[in-house]
Amino acid sequence: MLKDTSFAIHPGMEQQSGPVVYRDIGNVLNHTESDNTYLFSCENGNVAVQFYTDSIVRVAMNQKTEPKLHVSKTVHVTPGDLRITEVNSEEVLRLKTNNLVLIIRKAPFRITVMDDQDRVIVAEGDKGMAYRENGEVTVFKEMNEDDHFYGFGEKSGYLDKRGEKYEMWNTDVYAPHNPETDPLYESIPYFMTLRHGRAHGVFFDNTFRTKFDMKTASNYYSFSAEGGQIDYYVMAGPEPKAVLEQYTHLTGRMPLPPKWAIGYHQSRYSYETETEVRELAKSFVEHDIPVDVIHLDIHYMNGYRVFTFDKERFPNPKKLICDLKEMGIRIVPIVDPGVKKDSEYPIYQEGVREDLFCKYMEGDIYFGEVWPGDSAFPDFTDGKARKWWGDQHAFYTNIGIEGIWNDMNEPAVFNETKTMDVSVMHRNDGEPTTHRELHNVYGLFMGQATYEGMKEQLKGKRPFILTRAGYAGVQRYASVWTGDNRSFWEHLQMSLPMVMNLGLSGVPFTGPDVGGFAHDTNAELLTRWTQVGAFTPYFRNHSAIGTLYQEPWQFGEKYEAIMKKYIQMRYKWMPQLYSLFYQANKRGLPVMRPLLMEYPSDAKTYNLNDQFMFGDNVVIAPILTPSTTDRTVYLPAGDWIEFTTGKKYTGEKLHLIHAELEDMPIFVKAGTAIMLGEWNSNADKTSKNISMEIYAGECDETYAFTYYDDDGETFAYEDGSYLKMDVEVTSHINTVEVSVRNKNGDYTPEYNEIIVNIIGLREGGNVIINGEISRDIDKLSLKI
Ligand code: GLC
């Protein structure tokens, strides 16, 4: 195509647009207050200010009417009942909560948000809120020279987004995924700013196509939307973790995943027959390589009709699923939104009959081409369609399926725009709205429909949903994989900041296609990628049709042995991983974290792209280039012990670390602890022995952590059936003290003690467990 050649930069192609004219919100004419909502009538629009908590304030502006305050597609909490002190003068209105101060200048209307110590968080200068005649709304904020930006959901490129411009418009991008490829599948119009070690967040809750410009100027940044109203929240932090707790207070946290969903997944587009799937499962068992899930991609269906099986390829899915479950393996099938236009297909018939598909205002169903050919798309913006779709999943749950993979839900359509016609009119639960406004939430609502339907049918068991598209809050329903990457080292590299930024955007359960989806993988790349995958929150090997098969044994015994070691390691680290998912569920914290999250005052961490933290005390520094067995690793403050060699390294320094293909550098912080289990077999994945590995430190510092366990598959934990232990570990010169500060829950695990291992205890050193000196330091344990 011409536009893919140099013709794209033909001088005549440049669009000669005139200067962009914004209309500023103007001066405040008057303001009122009721129920902690402040309304400002300004020369060119109306503004509302609401406090959600002492640390979260919302600002909404509508240029035509009063701001609409009950329209969010994702925020389900309401403003809290807070004490706000108010000082009003002719020029300025000052509003104060316990953690925030708002200075509202009246001529013209400008907002400055400060923390409880009057430090500016977010400020407006010459420019503030404005709009254009075409309906675009924009907010300009002052940018500090020390601002670093993170989040923005699923974006390619480096960790620190300063100097970047991003767009939010859920898009199916098969190729390429380059640093400049934007937007991708998810829209999370949110970012976190780190300035001088303190963090705050901004969430722009507008579902239209939005843009974030942290590039054009060096003294201000802006965010804008193609339509709708300005509606954003400022979260005061001041630590990165506090920002995430605040952001997920608004958009929700992930439910605890079933344990099997955080194991290893094997996928391919496609394992095409029942025989192939059985062979695959058998191979995993024979090779003693752990696997929890095998995915069924589109070939399992009859002509790509969702909620069907192809009778020839999969003659007896129920038996297949039952037999695999006995082997300890679950099946997760793909379900796309497109329903084949076929008047003899019951799902299509019902969708038409019950009026559940997306339509034009004039009444015609919207048809778009996807895998099955011409297809109709359920209108997930409507409760009735969501319920119907959710109910259809009985087709899967009745045969023992507990997880669903939602794909193509941007929605992707095979046409020039790559998606649905933006003039389609969604039902939107009684408030008809165009696709232009609701495009970015289509995937979120599909996730909701699927999750709620599955949850209802699984009768107490936890469903697992994997999605490609989503909006802020997607974590409430689904985990996210990062779409169609390629088997390039560059894509392995890119996946680290991408997953870290997703984690900083409130979505903790994510990961890329391990090994790369498109393009042929190779032995070394797959091995190195599998090592990383063992420590990413979501761990799935997936590859595209026509590419080399990339199951762990495909490249010979040497590579298989290494991959097996790391996939087994995933299972050995399961108690630690599950306790991290508990933190995600409770506080919204990511499992895989950039170092800046734990060390926000250490500038060396601000753009560290090639290493990450697994929780708060483990640094993973993978090899990300070919033919490489050495790399530099930055270790932050503290002493660090290399997991495999036991060698000690000093923090706040760069180290040159050697790692043969067999090794991926892992460092545990001295003075802290990790919880490990064991690998038994595919049929029996529950650890009978759990150990607390304590890495003795030298100073008197105390490390506090929470060990969490439960049955890993039901919602019984919501009624108290869990084991939660708050543990403190203190290292003195030659003594290590372990104390269980709190133990809650009434879940009885298969183990009745936790083995305690002390790594690096001095000769003749003592161990004190719950106040008692232990006699035999080779046989230490904590009773449950
Ligand atoms: C899309 C998905 C990919 C899947 C393929 C076929 O490209 O991103 O994961 O394998 O569709 O369903």
Rg on CA atoms, Å: 27 Å
Distance between the termini: 67 Å
Q: Per the principal axes of the C-alpha atoms, what is the gross shape?
A: globular
Q: What proportion strand?
A: 25-35%
Spatial strand arrangement across the major sheet: 33-32-30-27-23-22-21-35-34
What is the fold named in CATH at topology level of the domain at 23-251?
A: Immunoglobulin-like
**Main beta sheet: strand number and arrangement?**
9 strands, parallel
What is the helical fraction, as a range of percent? Answer: 10-25%
Q: Output mean pLDDT.
A: 96
Number of DSSP helical runs: 13
DSSP E strands, number: 52
Task: List strands and helices in order, with pairings.
Layout: E1 23-24, E2 28-34, E3 37-42, E4 45-53, E5 56-62, E6 85-88, E7 92-96, E8 100-106, E9 109-115, E10 120-123, E11 129-131, E12 137-142, E13 148-151, E14 165-168, E15 186-187, E16 190-195, E17 198-204, E18 210-213, E19 220-225, E20 230-235, H1 240-251, E21 265-266, H2 274-287, E22 293-296, H3 317-326, E23 330-335, E24 339-340, H4 346-353, E25 367-370, E26 373-376, H5 383-392, H6 394-397, E27 403-406, E28 425-426, E29 433-434, H7 435-438, H8 442-457, E30 464-467, E31 470-471, E32 479-481, H9 489-504, E33 510-511, E34 513-514, H10 523-533, E35 540-541, H11 557-572, H12 574-587, E36 592-593, H13 595-598, E37 612-614, E38 618-620, E39 630-635, E40 639-642, E41 648-650, E42 653-658, E43 666-669, E44 673-676, E45 690-695, E46 702-709, E47 723-731, E48 735-744, E49 753-759, E50 766-769, E51 772-773, E52 780-783
Bound molecules: alpha-D-glucopyranose.
Residues 269, 297-298, 334, 407, 468, 483-484, 542 line the site of alpha-D-glucopyranose.
